[in-house]
Design brief:
Distance between the termini: 18 Å
CATH superfamily of the largest domain: P-loop containing nucleotide triphosphate hydrolases
Strand content: 25-35%
Oligomer: single chain
CATH architecture of the largest domain: 3-Layer(aba) Sandwich
Number of helices: 6
Shape: globular
Radius of gyration: 17 Å
Helix content: 25-40%
Strand order of the largest sheet: 5-6-7-3-8-9
Low-confidence stretches: none
Number of strands: 9
Mean pLDDT: 93
CATH topology of the largest domain: Rossmann fold
Order of helices and strands: EEEHEEHHHEHEHEE
Structural class: alpha/beta
Largest sheet: 6 strands, mixed
CATH class of the largest domain: Alpha Beta
């Protein structure tokens, strides 16, 4: 379980999160929903440790690793498609890393592009590569910040199936306001963010 205890966070003097108390359950899929710019990504960044609390504490993230799909692709442009996967793998043997990377690329229909560079991919293909890399890393907690952006309906369905089948018994936190995406991801609980700074989040 992840627990926010009186957490506050500001940027350039503007409060984004203020005295927030919040709990995320274990081993389920939850969704953060709210208008753009309200602070959903800040919540994910605080959980992952990319941002630090100004005050308060977050319990339950100690010694955890995170598979994070950011809103932007964050691909390494000078590495090939294959190398963008192998770079996050722990194995020291190149053959093993390449085999694992190819396994994930095949799941996302990207295997025939493995020697290309990200700049040669379409927007949807870049998005799928970002998701494949996060899944290959296989963190303890999955953070998905609008992961389906730029994908058509069929691609969304395929990607959702792959994510769900490879995140069982883990906490998955999805950021989305699209009902079809929430349904595809079999979300158990929705956290509604209605105002900024965030000091109360209602769940359904």
């Amino acid at each position: 379980m992840i627990k926010f205890n009186s957490v506050s966070k500001s940027f350039d003097g503007k409060k984004i999160v203020e005295d927030l108390n919040l709990e995320f359950p274990e081993k389920t899929v939850v969704c953060l929903s709210g208008e753009s710019g309200i602070g959903k990504s800040t919540i994910l960044n605080l959980i992952s440790g990319l941002e630090k609390c100004d005050s308060g504490e977050i319990i339950g993230i100690e010694n955890k690793s995170f598979s994070y799909v950011f809103q932007d692709d964050r691909l390494i442009e000078w590495l090939s498609v294959l190398e963008n996967i192998t770079v996050v793998l722990n194995s020291t043997k190149r053959i093993e890393k390449n085999k694992t990377a190819e396994h994930w690329l095949e799941k996302f229909d990207l295997l025939n592009c493995k020697y290309k560079y990200p700049s040669e991919l379409s927007g949807g293909m870049r998005r799928k590569l970002s998701i494949a890399r996060a899944l290959a890393f296989s963190g303890d907690i999955f953070l998905l910040d609008e992961p389906f952006k730029g994908l058509d309906k069929k691609s969304k369905q395929n990607v959702a199936k792959v994510i769900l089948s490879n995140s069982k018994n883990k906490l998955v936190i999805l950021v989305s306001h699209e009902p079809d995406e929430i349904k595809m991801m079999e979300v158990d609980k929705i956290y509604h963010i209605n105002k900024s700074p965030i000091n109360t989040i209602l769940s359904t």
